[in-house]
Design a protein that fits this description.
380 residues, alpha/beta, TIM Barrel, 8-stranded parallel β-sheet, two-stranded antiparallel sheet, 16 helices, 44% helix, globular, binds ligand FNR, L-lactate dehydrogenase (NAD+) activity
């Protein structure tokens, strides 16, 4: 793990350990994957503008995120199926987050249940991510379980009325567990470490009572259980039911951010679901400045999508984000080495961010301002 020096190194390690269909499920996006690529590349449209003569002898990288003092301006994005990538993957990820002092958000679509993750990692800042389900009673029950298991923040994801068309998954016929096919069997023969872990794991969607039909694709799971008819009234009702802080995840339009603020939602997560839902929507970093202007400090803003470098985090903060949320970088670390792999992801982010802040002349996160970034003249 110590030989991984960048997030890209961890991705390469994950590609070696995981079956191709599983790696593609993590790595891929919707349709032509234009938004997926743009999420990363759009950071290049922004340059950093350093200042000199600032005392950067000591640095403070900590940040308050919805009332929790995090050691870094980062959180682990909710990602389904983590237990399919590494045995007890959700617990492994939550452990690394707790050790590092950053928030961990558990997905509705986790393999481990709400209670299993809470029991496995009793300390640490836990958020629970909820989707709109057709079965509103089940949704309410999930909320009650999250309260009972002491998840502090609710993250309601609103960009998955149906699943985006993820063509890698269609081509690979990706299901959990993997459907036996000759190509899969040949691939698995080269992945003994992953296979041994998967064989030991109890696979399924741990927060749902109904077991899938054996080999379940995520698209089937979403189509049968998720509710595409949910609207702002429903969002308002969830806001009323949840007593603690709440974040709304998956918006890009400033007017939607305004609406969220007017409902008393404390944080908006500017996100296109990592390019996995509607293709051709703006990169998260591109959408951020308008959302920040609309929100005007009335809610916290979390930037989610394409963050791969410490310098990306600085750009997001300079453009109005309180913190960044990372999905694939943590899953690559998890797939490469469980808790140690996720810890390595966090360590790489911390060391890149610290180095960049020192060279930029910003000893703490409050010192990072809009004046520290410039749009490139030749930006697309
Ligand atoms: C996700 N994402 C996601 N989001 C969510 O709200 N609930 C979920 O269950 C999942 N599941 C999921 C699985 C996988 C494999 C990935 C890669 C992503 C989206 C995730 O929270 C986040 O928005 C993106 O991953 C951010 O983009 P990056 O950091 O991966 O570029």
């Amino acid at each position: 793990m110590q030989r991984a020096h960048t997030i890209a190194d961890l991705r390469a390690l994950a590609a070696r350990r995981l079956p191709k269909a599983v790696f593609d499920f993590i790595d891929g996006g919707a349709e032509d994957e234009r938004t997926l690529r743009d999420n990363v590349e759009a950071f290049e449209s922004w340059m950093l503008m350093p200042r000199v003569g600032v005392d950067v002898g000591t640095r403070d990288l900590s940040r308050s995120i919805l009332g929790c003092r995090a050691s870094l301006p980062l959180m682990m994005a909710p990602t389904g199926l983590a237990g399919f990538f590494w045995p007890d993957g959700e617990v492994a990820g939550a452990q690394a987050a707790a050790r590092a002092g950053i928030p961990y958000c558990l997905s509705t679509n986790s393999v481990a249940s709400i209670e299993q993750v809470a029991a496995g990692v009793p300390e640490g800042e836990r958020w629970f991510q909820l989707y709109f389900l057709r079965d509103r009673e089940w949704m309410r029950a999930l909320l009650c379980r999250a309260v009972a298991a002491r998840y502090r923040v609710l993250c309601l994801t609103v960009d998955l009325a149906v699943q985006g068309r993820r063509e890698r998954d269609l081509r690979n016929a990706f299901t959990m567990p993997l459907r036996p096919r000759l190509s899969t069997a040949l691939d698995l023969a080269r992945r003994p470490a992953w296979l041994a872990g998967a064989a030991r794991s109890r696979l399924g969607f741990g927060n749902f009572a109904v077991a899938g039909p054996g080999f379940t694709s995520v698209a089937q799971h979403v189509a049968s259980l998720f509710d595409p008819s949910a609207n702002w009234d429903d969002i308002g009702r969830i806001r009323d039911q949840w007593r603690g802080p709440m974040a709304l995840k998956g918006l890009l339009h400033p007017a939607d951010a305004e609406r969220a603020v007017s409902l008393g939602i404390e944080a908006v997560i500017v996100s296109n679901h990592g390019g996995r839902q509607l293709d051709d929507v703006p990169a998260a970093i591109t959408a951020l400045p308008d959302v920040a202007e609309a929100v005007a400090g009335r809610a916290e803003i979390i930037l989610d999508g394409g963050v791969r470098r410490g310098t990306d985090v600085i750009k997001a903060l300079a453009l109005g984000a309180t913190a960044c949320s990372l999905g694939r970088p943590f899953l690559w670390g998890l797939s490469a080495g469980g808790t140690e792999g996720v810890s390595r992801t966090i360590e790489i982010c911390r060391s890149e961010l610290d180095n960049a802040m020192t060279l930029l002349g910003t000893p703490n996160l409050d010192a990072i301002t809009r004046d520290h970034v410039r749009m490139r003249r030749d930006a697309r």
